[in-house]
Amino acid sequence: MARATTAAKNNALATIASALEQDITVLKEANARDCAQAQEKALDAAFIDRLTLSDAALRTMIAGLRQVLSLPDPIGEISELKSRPSGIQVGRMRVPLGVIGIIYEARPNVTIDAAALCLKAGNAVILRGGSEALNSNLALARSISSGLAAAGLPADAVQVVATADRAAVGKLATMTEYIDVLVPRGGKSLIERLMREARVPMIKHLDGVCHVYVDSAADLTKALAVCDNAKTQRYGTCNTMETLLVAASIAATVLPPLCRLYQDKAVALRVCARSRTVLEQAGIASLADATEADWRAEYLAPILAIRIVDDLDAAIDHINTYGSAHTDAIVTEHYDHAQRFLREVDSASVLVNASTRFADGFEYGLGAEIGISNDKLHARGPVGLEGLTSLKYIVLGHGEGRR
Amino acid sequence: MARATTAAKNNALATIASALEQDITVLKEANARDCAQAQEKALDAAFIDRLTLSDAALRTMIAGLRQVLSLPDPIGEISELKSRPSGIQVGRMRVPLGVIGIIYEARPNVTIDAAALCLKAGNAVILRGGSEALNSNLALARSISSGLAAAGLPADAVQVVATADRAAVGKLATMTEYIDVLVPRGGKSLIERLMREARVPMIKHLDGVCHVYVDSAADLTKALAVCDNAKTQRYGTCNTMETLLVAASIAATVLPPLCRLYQDKAVALRVCARSRTVLEQAGIASLADATEADWRAEYLAPILAIRIVDDLDAAIDHINTYGSAHTDAIVTEHYDHAQRFLREVDSASVLVNASTRFADGFEYGLGAEIGISNDKLHARGPVGLEGLTSLKYIVLGHGEGRR
Fold first, then answer.
1. What pLDDT, on a 0 to 100 scale, did the predictor assign at position B256?
2. Contact criterion met (CB below 8 Å) for A186 and A206
3. Hey, is the C-beta of B289 within 8 angstroms of any chain A C-beta?
4. Angstroms from B117 CA to nearest CA on chain A
5. Residue A142 has what DSSP assignment?
6. What is the ipTM of this complex?
7. Which domains, from first to last, does chain B contain?
8. Residue B353's closest CA among B318, B328, B326?
9. End-to-end Cα separation, chain A, in angstroms
10. Which residues form the Aldehyde dehydrogenase domain (chains A, B) (predicted)?
11. What is the pLDDT of residues A329-351, one digit of tens each?
């Protein structure tokens, strides 16, 4: 895979798309078996919805393959090539990571999305989806293999773990001699389990406790727009704001209109004592008291914690203490406050005057994403093709030795 | 530390250098106690040599501080800032990693070198040197703290683990809530232990089984120069060649003069059967037979394994099978062979017509290095200041929300 040309990889993505189109009946049969079993187990409607390979879902998967096909190939790019006094030239070349393991829930669309990104970056991939989707994933893997073979690439470059045994996850996570990096996509309990068990390095997403801080020098219109969007554009996403911080000096101006807006959208508010005073003075009721646990909560729901802080320093302290190093925003017109927030908030994405919801591979222009990383090493924030590659040093010489 | 300006960090490095100069008597007293204990334990001369803070060693450490001072500050650099259709600008900012743990042998000079690099990159650092150097390291840490305080930076940004208890290493390696990355510098057994035990992500160097492949299209003069330098310029370094691979078609031309040169320098040769035939036909004797274990050996000594391979493919297969993904070179005048070797050899440093000995932070122009990484994630190859930093995303908006 590492030596595959861009043309060969793009051709493979196209033949996989065609194979999926051809195999549609077989794929839907396999998926129907998974869905029937899920219904027997009385799994909930949302679960079965994510599991189902509808015509629309298949079309989206096929469109996704063609979109990854259209992305620039990151592999082989040479950067920073410089001449050294010894006579050699030193630079860096972008190369595949090798074998990537993906662990994910019972969502067959991830099988195709993840495989496409890994292949485009020249990697082999081992997929372990939720056991409830095993028949679907095995059928998808057969279509992928036939597409790879038709394009002259190794048919086994994409493999699905062919067992529903949950012990396979732990095994996969310790196979350092076969797997270069693990990308777990799933709930917090899976990630926490892997953080204890895994020996293979991970690109992982733990949780998203995201903040907007409305600074003393905020523009009111921008504050309302950003805070509204960050909380209410979607509730269940990891980059949704979970705690709103407001500078004390501007709280009486910002909080009442903002909280009326939230209450109009049925967002439940959990507030600190100072916020309660400000809001009740403005005639706003139906407020719950925020506890210490609320500052650490990832609600993924129409609930918002609100805290008044003294100033920028207190806001940065709160975020670095209670946040999850995911995505945090400041609303301010103050040059130095913006600069300090950008530099001192230790999160994967830090925004000025923009909604936290922008922290996303597509919005950032990566073209696609395999996930969002809370880690500081290697890939941080939305992870696209580049995060699935490595930079090695190359040296071009003319027979030089070291003195 | 993360918010320290370049001036403050440079000032701290200068005041630490001054503090070391002032404290020289105290430092040498503490070190003398360590050396006396090492002599009582009958530790060998090389060990005590590395442990000793001679006047020359102290001068080198102080010069090292001033050299790190002169390096460009990587922190705060913004790259790839691009405007997106949504109206936001997205870019990446280079920021410190946070708290770095360094585990190393009883070499007090590493205490200063590692602290200097970590501080320059805006990190705090926890140092755990070999227990035999504890008094020296604690004395050095006091000088560092007084230098930091004099420069107005946190005096405890550099800390030495104040116990000789070996259990401290295992403890340090699992404190994910306090330490962002671990840089172990030591023997293979320490690294292997940490690979089993550590929960903190590591930037690590396991071993250096480095190759030179003399291609069928090699220039003889360059081949002799590169192979001589790669093996004999220094024997004990991780980027020294340990196995020489030669294309069958050129073996009779290259191997005899090269092996005469090695034998003149008392390098012991362990050869494959085909190499033996070629060499004995040229009248070269005193050859040992190479075994499978030799292909995996890191001799760090005047010993060289030699193998004749059929062609470039066989050479790449050998390196990717037996090597340690450290540093590998090809000698060739063939354009496509050079390109394929660069791309397909999966090592941290890949060289064309240059000695493996160049794989070094100073030779690569990094200014200094904290170590050489065999890992593929994050930092690969020689690790300088950049490897001690992280890239976060920054977004500059004007009140935008996501649609």
1. 98
2. no
3. no
4. 17
5. H
6. 0.94
7. 6-203+380-395 (3.40.605.10), 210-363 (3.40.309.10)
8. B328
9. 38
10. 4-257, 295-359
11. 999 999 999 999 999 999 999 99
